[in-house]
């Protein structure tokens, strides 16, 4: 009797390991239209915590420092009684400027890292500074780094990783982001190739990577050992084509709806999650649907539907 050959897996949906998922799903203030520590158009922080728990999530990020309480005891009480835990804090850096910006950078990083550590998080999401203003579109610096600036970016990121690890016990995950110098496939791979895998991992944001023309599944396949964290997000292809053609800055593009509710956009998240599962490592996958500004009644229904959709993807 001849044993039938196993059916090959679809190349767009890598086979995930059997057993419980090692991906822990959460959401972030961003999905409630929160971009700033304080803004009257944003959802109040208590409402965010209530609604993110109601939507079925157990993990959250801190969001912009100062939006949630910065006293770790208060924050632990507020999250704990809602059944929530903190996965990461977020910082913005301009490390390509070299050692001259270190002291100012570290002052900001240390505050966020301390709160993340004290609330039980193990990651710090590092976002590069924007080369143009995300509101006005004003060009702040050249969109292309020089060789010297690439050297500063790599060296100072490794320095940041060591300091954050040694002082706070956290691992940094660098977030490729639209309108920054770590954005396209070319720039992401150049950054990864220039930094120490033992120190620097990536926060792969599926929406930002698609916004800049990248393929998340291929990045996971090629640089799987560097993927330390996920942000789950989709872009609307029609809006994206329009904002690219018009050279629209990222902030106004978000206001036009370039980041959309899954599964209405790209990339398809099921193959991304399958590729991530195939790595067989523990990963956070935090939903981060940019919606600033937005009506405060919008986020909760979207969050509920998104959580249900992700369950249909196996996480």
TrEMBL record:
Pro residues composition bias: residue spans: 1-11
Cited InterPro entries: IolE/XylAMocC-like, Xyl_isomerase-like_sf, Xyl_isomerase-like_TIM-brl
Q: Where is this region: Disordered?
A: 1-30
Low complexity: bias regions: 12-22
Query: Domain Xylose isomerase-like TIM barrel, which positions?
Result: 49-290
Q: What is this protein called?
A: TIM barrel protein
Q: Which organism is it from?
A: Streptomyces xanthii
């Amino acid at each position: 009797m001849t044993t039938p050959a196993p059916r090959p897996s679809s190349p767009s949906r890598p086979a995930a390991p059997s057993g419980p998922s090692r991906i822990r799903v959460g959401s972030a203030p961003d999905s409630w239209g929160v971009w700033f520590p304080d803004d009257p158009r944003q959802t109040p922080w208590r409402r965010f915590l209530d609604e993110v728990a109601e939507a079925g999530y157990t993990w959250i990020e801190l969001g912009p420092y100062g939006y949630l309480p910065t006293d770790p005891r208060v924050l632990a009480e507020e999250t704990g009684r809602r059944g929530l835990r903190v996965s990461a804090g977020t910082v913005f850096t301009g490390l390509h400027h070299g050692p001259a910006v270190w002291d100012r950078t570290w002052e900001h990083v240390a505050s966020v890292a301390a709160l993340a550590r004290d609330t039980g998080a193990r990651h710090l999401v590092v976002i590069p500074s924007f080369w143009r203003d995300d509101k006005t579109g004003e060009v702040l610096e050249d969109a292309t780094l020089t060789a010297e600036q690439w050297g500063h970016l790599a060296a100072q990121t490794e320095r940041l990783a060591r300091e954050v690890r040694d002082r706070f016990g956290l691992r940094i995950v660098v977030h490729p982001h639209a309108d920054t110098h770590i954005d396209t496939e070319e720039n992401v791979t150049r950054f990864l190739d220039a930094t120490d895998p033992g120190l620097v991992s990536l926060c792969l944001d599926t929406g930002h990577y698609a916004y800049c023309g990248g393929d998340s599944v291929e990045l996971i396949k090629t640089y799987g050992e560097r993927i330390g964290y996920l942000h789950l997000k989709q872009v609307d292809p029609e809006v994206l084509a329009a904002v690219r053609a018009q050279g629209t800055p990222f902030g106004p593009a978000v206001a036009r709806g370039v980041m959309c509710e899954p599964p209405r956009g790209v990339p398809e998240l099921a193959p991304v999650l399958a590729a991530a599962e195939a790595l067989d490592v523990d990963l956070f996958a935090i939903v981060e649907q940019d919606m600033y500004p937005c009506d405060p009644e919008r986020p909760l229904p979207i969050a509920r539907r998104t959580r249900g959709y992700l369950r249909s993807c196996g996480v």
